[in-house]
Specification:
alpha+beta, SH3 type barrels, six-stranded mixed beta sheet, 7 helices, 11% helix, zinc, transcription regulation, zinc-finger, PcG_chromatin_remod_factors
């Protein structure tokens, strides 16, 4: 039986690949190789707590991607990142930039010290040269810490809320919703379509979600709110809105499987809105489709896996299942790779542990919050 390849598949499907020029630099083919090695230590953001920088170890390397582990915590919290991710930094970065570093589990406030930690672990810090640095100097953006703005709530994209810039790193801002907990925080570039100047909702007739518990939520006035919170609005000139993403429906790409992020699959864009695209995995049922930001680091042009040395999961039914790994999982199309409870287990063979079973499909998070009980 012939080996699956993109060129014949696109012809067969009579569908084009999403043009490479639509992808952002960090989604497209990387310049260098992935120099990270298993066991190297670094600092980085926790995707579940975007305002927290943590002590991490490279646990697995796959092509241009790696699985990162929180030192001292169970493996089920591990997560995948690209080698050029903006969310990771060399050892010592937090101290240099006056960010608070969350130490590994078991360390008390102020006890942690990288030099002795690396020595005790007999571990190597990931060399600084492996980290992406912005080639262009960052020009002052007009944004300052503490400035207020209006921002789309990414968990509920139909809502726009009152928000504050709570951190800035290079060309990225950390957006926090006033009076909400940090699980709604996110990082974005200054050109992001998710952030708008104060007054945007009023001008466009869009409802503005006011901070929960704010006394005058019915008659919310920015002028009054800025005065009460003793803060400034981010100047309108600071917002450099980038053009719409340009991805079209019925074009093909390679996308990380959000439910099983060790895998990258052959995918089709089946819908789009201003900021997002809807990903369909070829050969899979449509109830597995999901929306992803058009600027997500987890979508790539056709050929990305091949170029970066990462396995690509071909469409369901395209190849003989005989070579399937793992035991037979009852979910159609699932080869038993991965596990609903995260990377601690490489394979599964029951519905309860299958990332694609109906039981797990719509559960936001099976895991207890990593930091609960120790804030």
């Amino acid at each position: 039986k012939k080996v699956w390849n993109w060129a014949s598949y696109l012809e067969e499907e009579q569908m084009p690949a999403a043009p490479q020029k639509l992808f952002r630099e960090y989604q497209s083919f990387p310049q260098g190789r992935n120099g990270f090695k298993v066991g190297m230590k670094l600092e980085g953001l926790d995707p579940e707590h975007p305002s927290r920088f943590c002590v991490l170890t490279v646990a697995e390397v796959q092509g241009y991607r790696m699985r990162l582990h929180f030192d001292g915590y169970p493996e089920c919290y591990d997560f995948w990142a690209n080698a050029d991710s903006s969310d990771i930094h060399p050892v010592g970065w937090c101290e240099k930039t006056s960010h608070k570093l969350l130490p590994p589990k078991g360390f008390k406030e102020g006890e942690f010290n990288w030099t002795s930690y690396l020595k005790n672990c007999k571990a190597q810090a990931a060399p600084k040269s492996l980290f992406k640095t912005l080639s262009t100097p960052v020009t002052p953006s007009g944004f300052r810490l503490g400035m207020k703005l209006e921002a789309v709530d990414k968990k509920n994209p139909s809502l726009i809320g009152v928000a504050t810039v709570t951190d800035m790193v290079e060309n990225r801002l950390l957006i926090h919703f006033d009076n909400w907990d940090e699980s709604y925080d996110y990082w974005c570039e200054t050109s992001s379509p998710y952030i708008r100047p104060v007054g945007y909702c009023q001008e466009t007739g869009t409802p503005l979600t006011t901070p929960p518990g704010y006394k005058d939520s019915k008659a919310f006035s920015w002028e009054k709110y800025l005065e009460e919170t003793n803060s400034q609005a981010a100047p309108a000139r600071a917002f450099k809105l980038r053009p719409p993403h340009g991805f079209q429906v019925n074009t093909k790409l390679e996308a990380v499987d959000r439910r099983n992020p060790i895998l990258i699959r052959v995918a089709t864009i089946v819908d789009k809105d201003n900021h997002r695209v809807k990903i369909h995995f070829d050969g899979w049922d449509h109830h597995y489709d999901f929306w992803v930001d058009a600027d997500s680091p987890d979508i790539h042009p056709v050929g990305w896996c091949d170029k970066t040395g990462h396995a690509l999961q071909v469409p369901l039914g395209a190849e003989d299942p005989e070579g399937a790994v793992g035991q037979a999982c009852p979910t159609p199309g699932c080869h038993g790779i991965g596990h609903a409870r995260g990377p601690r287990y490489g394979t599964h063979y029951t519905l309860v542990s299958c990332p694609y079973s109906d039981v797990n499909l719509n559960r936001e998070n099976l895991l207890q919050d990593r930091l609960s009980g120790e804030r």
